[in-house]
Amino acid sequence: MIRSAATRLIVSLRSFGGLNGPLTAGAVRFSHSSETAEDFDARYEAYFNRPNIDHWEARKAMNDLLGMDLIPEPKIIVAGLKACRRLNDYALAVRFLEGCKDKCGDKVNEIYPYLLQEIRPTLTELGIETPEELGYDQPELALKSVYDIH
């Protein structure tokens, strides 16, 4: 779903002369990379599935993923959540979910429910609640904006 929309966007930009260079099927990554989307997903899945991953490596990979111009596929999110459970780092798991939601941008009402639907069995299996279930989407002590007072 996510890749197909991105692929259509790139193809339409190419047809208008906005992007140069060949587009390989399924590859919507950086133009200088020859790595396909499937290879990219497999690389991050394998990285998170390593049994000896430590806290720093997990945080580094999650930070790198959330810093890229993409929304991680559900299978990468699942692998990241399982790594958090192996590390016994519940806070990192919830923070990773928050970051994935933030990456959805203005399409959050369309993409985030899809992501939750795909990762829900893993969340239930691992006993991880979403930021919304924990009430983190509504600030407890937030002050009203000065623009909304009057």
Quick overview of this protein structure:
59% of the residues lie in helices and 0% in strands. It is mainly alpha-helical and 150 residues long. It is globular and about 55 Å long.
Description:
- With about 150 residues, the protein is mainly alpha-helical.
- Helices cover about 60% and strands about 0% of the residues.
- It has 7 helices and no strands.
- Helix 2 runs parallel beside helix 4 and helix 4 packs parallel to helix 6.
- About 10% of the residues have low confidence.
Question: What tags apply to this protein structure?
Answer:
150 residues; mainly alpha; 7 helices; 59% helix; globular
Question: What summary fits the major beta sheet?
Answer: none
Helix content: 55-70%
End-to-end gap: 43 Å
Instruction: Report the count of strand segments.
Output: 0
| Multimeric status of the protein | single chain
How many whole angstroms does the radius of gyration measure? 18 Å
Please work out how many helical segments DSSP would assign.
Answer: 7
Structural category is mainly alpha
Q: Given the C-alpha coordinates, what overall shape results?
A: globular
Binned strand content: under 5%
Mean pLDDT, to the nearest integer, reads 83
Topology as H/E string? Answer: HHHHHHH
Low-confidence stretches: 15-31
